[in-house]
Design goal:
By secondary structure, the chain is an alpha/beta fold. It has a single domain, classed as NAD(P)-binding Rossmann-like Domain (Rossmann fold, 3-Layer(aba) Sandwich), CATH 3.40.50. The chain is built from eight helices and seven strands, in the order E-H-E-H-E-H-E-H-E-H-E-H-H-H-E.
C-alpha cells in the first residue's frame, strides 16, 4: 500500500524548528521523505533537530524572524542555494503574556513581528516567480486563542487572529498560482512555549477549569504535526483558507 503521506522530492521550509511543534513536524516530514529547510534563532537546538532527522540532505539557517527587514534577503539566499520550495510551515512564535496595563506598543510590536509579520513576509517572498513549485502548500500555526478572550493574552491572541485573517485573504489571492494556505489552531499542547504562556495562571482554579474543557486531554506536539502534514499533502488539495482546530475538544465546550 502506498504511503498516505508521501513527501519524497519535496522541499519544505519549517520555521521555529528548534523545538516543540516545529521539531515534531520536522521529524514527521523527514520520515516521509521530505527535504527540509529549517529556520530558527537557536543554533544549538536547531543543529540538534537537523542531526536527528531521517535523511541526510536537510539544511538549516539561523535567523531572528523578529527582524522583518532581513527576511527578504535571507529568502533570496535560500532560494538561490536550495531552489524552489513545495511547502512552508510557520511554527516560529513567541507566547509572551502580560496584563493589558503592561502591554505597551513596543511589546505588542515584538509579538506581532514574530508571530504575524514574519509569516506574511515569508509568504510574500516564497510566492514570487521561481521561488516555489506548483502545488505550494502553506500552513501557519494559529491558536484557539484567536477565538477566545483571556486575560494577559491581548498581544498573543491578536497576532494569531491576524494570521488566520491573512490566510483567508492569501488563499483567495494565491489560488490562481495554485497555492494553498491554511492554519492549524492547537489547543493546550505539551511544549516549552505552553509552559511559558501558562506560567502566569498555572495552579489557579480558572486554569484548572480551562484544562478541564479540553476533555480529550493535553495535545502532544506530534498531534499537531500530524495535522500539519495532512494539510501540506496532496490529500488536502481541496482545502484552502481554512482553520483546522486540534484542541482535544475545547472549542466544542
Amino acid at each position: 500500500m502506498p504511503d498516505f503521506l508521501d513527501f519524497k522530492g519535496k522541499k519544505i521550509f519549517v520555521t521555529g524548528a528548534a523545538g516543540g511543534m516545529g521539531q515534531a513536524v520536522s521529524a514527521l516530514l523527514a520520515a516521509h521523505g521530505a527535504h527540509l529547510i529549517l529556520l530558527d534563532r537557536n543554533k544549538e537546538q536547531l543543529d540538534v533537530t537537523r542531526i536527528g532527522l531521517e535523511g541526510s540532505d536537510h539544511t538549516s539557517y539561523v535567523c531572528d524572524l523578529g527582524q522583518i527587514d532581513a527576511i527578504e534577503g535571507l529568502m533570496s539566499q535560500i532560494t538561490k542555494e536550495q531552489g524552489a520550495v513545495d511547502g512552508l510551515v510557520h511554527c516560529a512564535g513567541i507566547a509572551n503574556v502580560r496584563p493589558l496595563k503592561l502591554s505597551k506598543y513596543s511589546y505588542m510590536v515584538d509579538v506581532m513581528n514574530v508571530n504575524y509579520f514574519s509569516f506574511v513576509e515569508i509568504v510574500r517572498c516564497i510566492t514570487k516567480r521561481k521561488a516555489f513549485n506548483p502545488g505550494l502548500s502553506i500552513v501557519g500555526i494559529c491558536s484557539i486563542g484567536a477565538f477566545y478572550g483571556a486575560p494577559t493574552k491581548t498581544a498573543y491572541s491578536s497576532s494569531k487572529a491576524a494570521m488566520y485573517a491573512a490566510v483567508k485573504c492569501m488563499a483567495v489571492e494565491l489560488a490562481e498560482k495554485g497555492v494553498r494556505a491554511n492554519v492549524v489552531a492547537p489547543g493546550s499542547t505539551r511544549t516549552g512555549m505552553m509552559e511559558q504562556a501558562e506560567e502566569y495562571s498555572a495552579g489557579t482554579d480558572s486554569y484548572k477549569q480551562k484544562l478541564s474543557r479540553q476533555y480529550l486531554g493535553i495535545c502532544e506536539p506530534e498531534d499537531i504535526a500530524n495535522s500539519i502534514a495532512f494539510l501540506l499533502s496532496d490529500k488536502a488539495r481541496m482545502i484552502t483558507g481554512a482553520c483546522l482546530t486540534v484542541d482535544g475538544g475545547k472549542m466544542s465546550t
